[in-house]
Amino acid sequence: MTPIYLPLGNYPSVTALVFEQAPVRETTRERAALQFETIDSEDAFARLGDQWDDLVYTSPRPSPFMLHCWLLEWWRYYGEGCRLAVETASRGGRLVGALPLVTFARGGLRVATFIGARQSCLGDVLLAEGEGPELVEALVARASAADHDYADLFGLAADSRLAALRGAHSIRLFERVAAPVLDMSDGWSETYRTKTDSRKRSHHKRRRRQLAELGRVEIDHARTIEELEPALEEGFRIHALRWRGRPDGSGLVTETGMRFNRAALRGLAELDASRIVSLLVDGRAIAWSWYFVLGERAYLHRLAFDPAFARCSPGLINALDTLESVAADGVTRVEFLGGAERYKVELADRLEPLHLGLGLTGSAAGRAVVRSQATWLGLRERGKSSELARRLYYGTAGARNRLARRRDVLRPNGVRRAGD
Known about the structure:
The protein is of the alpha+beta class. The chain has helices spanning 14-18, 42-46, 49-57, 68-78, 133-144, 187-195, 198-214, 225-242, 255-270, 314-328, 342-347, 364-383, 387-395, 397-403, and strands at residues 4-5, 34-39, 83-84, 86-91, 94-99, 101-106, 109-114, 126-127, 150-157, 171-177, 180-183, 217-222, 274-281, 284-294, 297-305, 333-335, 350-351, 354-359.
């Protein structure tokens, strides 16, 4: 593939005259030129390795679902029917920018989405320190000119680099997930005291006493791969119990999903980014929580409890124990990522929603689909303010769930395949 070089920046020449005695700084001319490439094979993507993760860790709101091991394993287990379309930029052989996309077929059109599909929370353009919005524009322009009709990007933050695009490459955002956030700068004890009143704390103590009446209560903290692998298997069991007979798109109860999560767990463990906290009674896990740690941030990924113990609220108690464990890791910010469940909202400081982004159209058909979807989503947003519409929506939830196709958020089209 022929490299494309693009020097960026526009600095006034008078600067050098004014600061003649100042230390010599790297100028645009002295910097290595940008080299762009579209990564379309697994081997080429696998070689990016550590360079990729360096970009993730330096992101303003880093995402564990953008880590190289997660994306690579997703491609291996869920990439069938998709094409890799990862736009990258390098300087002097060093990766400095990336837009992690795949394309897939939907309704006769080619759609671009993040690697990882609907589980790509906080996906975005990845940039090295010192790179600016010009590089974001360049990567997006290359993606827009590629072989797809439009982009459907789930999990965008309102302050993401892609959300900041304007003009021809702008992306329309629609809020989809509440994503509560908790500041833990003061540690768990102070945070817990601030976020709960005496009545709520008494309720939690009563639930702990009820659990103790059932047997010996233990909290298991898994961090090494030797600890994490059996804890994940217990998590699969508990999750299956919790969601038995109910719609579940987690990927934790399908054969493909379990294989994917086992593989991703190993990669995350090598980065010391994976933790599992389990609540045990007489040595048997009855609640489970899996979270990721990147620097001083934690991301709650999955949690479940055995419904046979529901009267003792094991899920809530394990969530509190998880937050205590998070604080012990030196974490100062917790991303709940999911919806506005009551316990999350009560503990959180604020909501920082995740959005669906539509745009990067590459054809007239793609533009028509984006307009149509945007109109529908806009009407849906306005409908949320209608009490009648809300009652109708929630009143028919049971019927809709029974009629719904089996979903799998790890597949771009959302449809679970036969045999999974």
